[in-house]
Automatic annotation (TrEMBL):
Species the sequence originates in: Cervus elaphus hippelaphus (European red deer)
Name of the molecule in the record: GLOD4
Keyword Transferase among record annotations: no
Domain VOC: 1-98
Keywords noted in UniProt: Repeat
Protein family: Belongs to the glyoxalase I family.
Length: 132
């Protein structure tokens, strides 16, 4: 990643892969963060050829790998490579091969129609579920 901005005084940095892509801002937080019962996973796409290097680096540095590099089939669509790591607090960080991710993220031209169909079915079934 390229460092776009770095402010030592404010303890923040802005990172990104390219000028025309989203950026990641990291900012120091003083003190401990109370996550309570919150959980989740953050995911990043990166060039597929870098995933095995990332896995090797995590192994060399004895960092936690929750899911080793694996290929996940999506029927009728691209096979995506994924590795899931854990940060020091145990939160999941997922890295996905960019090429397949972009293929899977394309707009489905039938998407709006499918959502409309589901909404119509839900409206029809909702009174039945209530016993009306």
């Amino acid at each position: 990643m390229k460092i776009y901005e770095k402010d030592e005084k404010e303890q923040r940095a802005l990172l990104g892969y390219a000028d025309n892509q989203c950026k990641l801002e990291l900012q120091a937080i003083p003190g401990k963060v109370d996550h309570a019962t919150g959980f989740g996973r953050i995911a990043f796409s990166c060039p597929q050829e870098e995933l095995s290097d990332l896995e090797d680096l995590m192994k060399r540095e004895n960092q936690k790998i929750l899911t080793p590099l694996v290929s996940l089939d999506t029927p009728g669509k691209a096979t995506v490579q994924v590795i899931i790591l854990a940060d020091p607090d145990g939160h999941e960080i997922c890295f996905v091969g960019d090429e397949a991710f972009r293929e899977l993220s394309k707009v489905d031209p039938e998407g709006n129609k499918l959502l409309d169909d589901v909404s119509l079915i839900s409206k029809f079934l909702s009174p039945l579920a209530k016993g009306d």
